[in-house]
Amino acid sequence: MTALSSTRLKHQVTLLAPDDIDNGRGGRKPNPATGGWKAYAKPWAEVIALRGDEAVRQSVERSAQLWRVEIRIRDDVTPSHRVRWGTIVMQVKAAAPNSAGDGLVMTCLSERTA
Q: What residue ranges define each of the domains in the chain, with the CATH number in brackets?
């Protein structure tokens, strides 16, 4: 088991949670004041680009980049969250503790319209 060394945590990221409000009809909608996302933490991370690809969604070609983001262990990150690193916003696809149990490894995806 390799412990998470602070020397690897060189990038500060922002963790984003969905920010929904009542829609007045018994449901929920994204909060227009925050764009539907609110920042709740700014941990230091190790960010590694894994692979890039192209995807077609709704007849629009997009470039897709897969990322590995590791932060200190915490229990408030789920696949419904996002990670922002500078101008890159990534959707969390999976989050699991590392083998030493002191870090959280997230697999994330960012997309850009081509």
A: 6-113 (2.40.10)
